[in-house]
Amino acid sequence: MATIAQLEQELFAKNFKIDIRPGDTVRVHVRIKEGDKARTQIFEGTVIALKRGGPRTTITVRKVSHGMGVERIFPLFSPWLEKVEVTGRHKVRRAKLYYLRGLSGKAARLKPIRGWRPPTDQSAADKPKRRRKGRRRRERLAAKHGAE
Nearest Cα to 26, choosing from 83, 67, 80? Predict the structure, then answer.
């Protein structure tokens, strides 16, 4: 008979190399079972809390649907969780954003981090190198001073 610790280790073996922080906008893909059919449901919202606990780590995601605030708590290492995509990152100064529950409309907005883009699966070797400004000028100067 498997102990709880052994079961947790099996679930914890599922690799989540995702960097999730409070203030992130995420899309959580959850497997939903209805009768004998299973489908994937996407829940998109803002991470307002992250509770770390090894295999028991959970995230609380909040969204506003038809004017009503909806929150769901997702265990990160649940077998029903297919994937978590981080679509945006915002500047926050709290670990728990429970104060968003009392705000609505424009007051509930978070300030996005400029220049942040979702991480890609491309390795550093596959990425094209950034073209530096003034390349022609450097080449011209190198040719001029190299000829002397």
Answer: 83
pLDDT at 114: 87
Among candidates 38, 48, 47, 40, which has minimal Cα distance to 18? Answer: 47
Q: Is residue 146 part of a domain?
A: no
Whole-number Å distance between alpha carbons of 43 and 123: 28
User: Whole-prediction pTM value?
Assistant: 0.73
Q: Quote the domain boundaries for residue 70.
A: 1-103
CA distance 136 to 145: 14
CA torsion angle 74 75 77 81 (round to 10) = -30
pLDDT 10s digits, 41-76: 999 999 999 998 888 889 999 999 998 999 999 998
